[in-house]
C-alpha cells in the first residue's frame, strides 16, 4: 500500500477565532461533493505548504460525524512549537485551497460500553466534541469532565454545558476547581469505559489512578499526539533508495525521508499507530526513541525506529527504506 | 439486464455450472507453480475490465441462485447470521457501502434513491423495492447486516476494532470453508485463526493483523485464499460436516474432473466509517477441475501446486486422502512446459 | 494438589496462571472443588484487609465440606458455599449487577466453572483480559457439539458421545469463550460407522 492516507482536496470555508489561543477551521470539498462520514475520535492530517516545506499535522475532527457538508478542526496556537499551529493561525484564510486526509480513528468509542466517562483537558476537548455528537444521536450514556485554565480559555465549554447541562462538568484552574478523580472513578457501573485526552501529565495521572483503582487496561482509552521533538541534526543512509539525507533541527526523520522523495508509510505521525515502523540495518550511536509504539525490548534492540517522532545521535544510521 | 442469471442449485442435484465466460474470469489464485502462506494483501482497486476485480462487489451469473441458496441455509439454521448488540451501527455502515457501490457500478440492476434519511432501494434481479429510514432498524424486515447480505454474494464477517485487535462480533456465513460463525463469534483475530496450521509460527497473523488495523476509509484491501470441495457445495459448514463429509468417499479416478472443485475466496477488507469496524467480505468462487484445465496454464500449474503442497496444508484443506487421485487426474494436463508468471490465462 | 500444567496448544485454547492479588475496591472469588486451594494460596500472599472487601463463592462438588471451614476462616465479607454451579448462578448474577468498576474477579477450579463464570463477568462488562483464572482439579472438558449445538459436560474421553444428539465427536482444542466450551466434531463424518476406540485423555 502506498504511503499515508487517501487525500481530499478542500477549500477553507470559515476561519473562526474561538478565544485568545484557539481558532476553528472549516473545510469543504473543493469539488462540491460530500465529505466522508467518520466515527467520533477520528483525526485528519492537514497538509500545509509552508514556504519550501510540506508540513503534515494531525488534528481531531470536532464536527458532527454525520454532517457530510464539511469537516471542522480547532487549532491551539503554540508559539514555541515547530510551526504548524502558527501556520494555521497566521497563513490560512477563507477561500484557500488545502489538502486533508480521509479520517483515521485511533481513539474510537467502545460501543459495548454501558457508560462513556470522558475526561478532557484544554484543547483535548476536540475529539470529545465529535464523540458527544455521535453519542447524542445514538442515545448513548456519557459524562464529560473538562478541565480548563480560565473561563476565557474554556474552548466550547459554554456550548457543551448549554446542550448537556447534566452531563457536562467544567473545572476552572484559576478558581481552584479540580477534577476529584478518585471520587469520580469510584462507584462507576461495570461496563463503564474511561476516555482521556489532554496534556501529557493529565493522561498519565488518569491512567495511573484508574490502574490503582483496579480499572482494566481495556476500559481506559487515551489519545495523545506527540509532536516530533526537535534536536541535533543528523545524517541517515536510506539503503533501499540508496540516498543519504540530512535531518534538520526542527524536522522529523519522517519529514526528511519524504523531502528526499522516498515513499514512506504513515498514519498518525505521532508515534502511536505503528504504521511508519522502519527496520534499522546498521548504526553507530544512540537512538532517541519518543514513540508509544515499540516495546522497550524493541527500543533497546537497535533494530527498529519510528521515524515520525524518534531521532538519532551519533556517527551513522542506515535504514531499510 | 446485462447478466443472464443461472437457474441452478448448490446442493442435492448440484446443477451449478460456469459458463465459458465465467471460466475465463475465474480468479485463479496461484501466481507461481507452488504455494505457501503469505500476507498477500493488495489495494482493492478496480482493474482488468470484466474480471472479478473490476467492481467493489462482483455480481455474476450465479447471483440469484446463490441468494436462494443462502435463504435455504438460513431457514435451516438461523445461527449462520448473528450480530452482537454493539454491531448494529456497523451493519448500517455495510448497508450504505454495498448499496452505494452496487447502485453506482450496476445501474441497470440496482438503484438507490436517498432523500435525507429516507432511502429507496431497488434490487431488480431479486425483485426488491423497499423504502426505509437509514439508522432505524424498525423500518427493515431484518437487521441491517442481514438485510443487505441476503442480497449480496459471499460471506461477511464484521470485525470490531479495539485493544489493538480485531474481534469477529457479527457475520453472515453460509458459504464457508468449514468454520462456524456460531462458535467463532466474539473471538479475536488470533483465536479465530487458531486452527490454521503453520501460519502462526511463520508470524503471518501478527503481520496481517498489523496491516488490517491500519486499513483506512476509502482504501480497501484484498487477497485470495483457496481450498478444494467435492461437488459445488457452497455450504461446507462444520454444522453440516456429517452430511457432506461422506461425499469425499465418492471420488473416483473417473469423476475427479466433474466432482472436484477448486474453491477460491476473494477476500476484501473495508474500513467502515461510522463504527470504525472492518468488514471482511469472503466471496466464494467454485470451478470444477474439468473447466479449470480448459485454460492450459492453469492445468499445468494447479497440478504442480497440489502435488507439492505440504502435508499439513493438504490435511487442513481437507483433501489429503484424495490427493493421489486428484494429482493423477491433473497430471494428464501437465506436459511439463514452463508457465508464465501471474494468474491470468496466456 | 498443585496447579495443572496445560500443554501448549492453539491460540484459542485458554491458558491459566496463578492467581495474584490486584489492586481493587472489591474482590469476587469464584471456585469449584479443588479450586479452593488456589484461593487459600492467594490468601497467603494477599495484603492485609484483602478479604474485608471480598466475596467468596465456592462450589463444593465432590469435595463436600473439605474446604468449607478453611475458606470461611479467611473471613471474607461475604461467603457462600453451594452444591453446584447452577445453584450459584442467581447469586453470581446479582453480585455482578450491583458491582462497580474496580471489581477484581478471580476464578479457580475446573475449566467448566471458570469458563461459565467468565461468561457472566464478561456479560456484566469486565473484559476477558482483566479476569484471572487458575486451573485446579479435574481436566474434564465442557464440549459443544458443532452439529446439534448441545453442550456435554465433564467429557473425559476422545471421541465421546454427544449427550444430546448421540453423534460420536472428537475433541478439538478450539475454544469459544462466548460459549465457554470446546468444539466437538463428528469423528466418522467422512467414513460413517468408522469410530475409533475412545481414549481417556482428561480426568
Automatic annotation (TrEMBL), chain A:
- The parts of the chain that form a coiled coil are none
User: Which InterPro entries does this UniProt record tie to the protein?
Assistant: 2Fe-2S_ferredoxin-like_sf (IPR036010), 2Fe-2S_ferredoxin-type (IPR001041), 2Fe2S_fd_BS (IPR006058), Beta-grasp_dom_sf (IPR012675), DmmA-like_N (IPR054582), FAD-bd_FR_type (IPR017927), FNR_nucleotide-bd (IPR039261), MRET (IPR050415)
Say yes or no: keyword Acyltransferase present. Answer: no
Ranges of residues in domain FAD-binding FR-type: 5-110
Q: Which UniProt keywords apply?
A: 2Fe-2S, Flavoprotein, FMN, Iron, Iron-sulfur, Metal-binding, Oxidoreductase
A Pfam family matched in the record: Fer2
**What top-level branch of life does the organism fall under?**
Bacteria
Supply the PROSITE patterns for this chain: 2FE2S_FER_1, 2FE2S_FER_2, FAD_FR
Under Gene3D superfamilies, the record lists: 3.10.20.30, Nucleotide-binding domain of ferredoxin-NADP reductase (FNR) module, Translation factors
According to the entry, every stretch annotated as the 2Fe-2S ferredoxin-type domain falls at 234-321
**Which coenzyme or cofactor does it need?**
FMN
Q: Which PANTHER family match?
A: CARNITINE MONOOXYGENASE REDUCTASE SUBUNIT (PTHR47354:SF1), NADH OXIDOREDUCTASE HCR (PTHR47354)
Protein name in the entry: PDR/VanB family oxidoreductase
What is the organism of origin for this protein?
A: Albidovulum salinarum
UniProtKB/TrEMBL annotation, chain B:
Pfam families given in the database record: HODM_asu-like (PF11927)
Protein name per the record: DUF3445 domain-containing protein
TrEMBL record, chain C:
> InterPro entries under this entry?
DmmA-like_C (IPR048037), DmmA-like_N (IPR054582)
Q: What is this protein called?
A: Transposase
Question: Which residue stretches, if any, does this entry annotate as coiled coil?
Answer: none
Mark the transmembrane ranges: none
Sequence ranges assigned to domain Dimethylamine monooxygenase subunit DmmA-like N-terminal in this UniProt record: 9-127
Looking at the record, the residues that make up the Dimethylamine monooxygenase subunit DmmA-like C-terminal domain are 142-185
- What is the species listed in this Swiss-Prot or TrEMBL entry? Albidovulum salinarum
Q: Which UniProt keywords apply?
A: 2Fe-2S, Flavoprotein, Iron, Iron-sulfur, Metal-binding, Oxidoreductase
Q: Which domain of life is it from?
A: Bacteria
